[in-house]
């Protein structure tokens, strides 16, 4: 049985973690592979500034540092920011999949241009950074915000009547006004809206979390992993230091609650 670790980018309890695990229901992964979810020990409240992004990278590195030693065959990162992906790729030889860049690359397989639907405008930097790294800014027809502050734990629960009409209106503007031929949900926190939206528009809609699970499965089936030339291993890895910072951060978080 292949084991994949899914790193959830915010500290949370079992009930909130279950909303993230529900993404598995959107994709048929077949037998022989199991996905295990782990929330980070530390992290920012949201991904809304460069301060937050630095904490996000560390929190996901801390959560996945020992994944290979723990017997996992791959890692998926449950955030479109791909936070910690490059760091974990430098530390691990097993596949590490971030949904942000992979959603954009798959969108290019399905059409000539794509738009990204985001919950609020403060997430814009997450996508512009990845687009620049991939050299794909010219393929992105638009980034459209719903203007709704995201809830990283409750997700869309209780806000469906507010969010879904805004999502559909933004999607239609992406298609009709911006020329998007593919849509990407801008966050794994939006996964609950995927089926609803896909039924109401005439272009493909990419659900980034389940896509990352399928790509992890494909990478394992084909024996593929990331290039050590692109993500070289550190000359002097600091595993103990990273763990110690993680423990200290978690203790600080507990004392503040």
Automatic annotation (TrEMBL):
One Pfam match: Asp_Glu_race
SUPFAM superfamilies, per database record: Aspartate/glutamate racemase
GO molecular function: amino-acid racemase activity
Top-level taxon: Bacteria
Family, per entry: Belongs to the HyuE racemase family.
PANTHER family attached to this UniProt entry: PROTEIN DCG1
Protein name in the entry: Asp/Glu/hydantoin racemase
UniProt source species: Paracoccus alkenifer
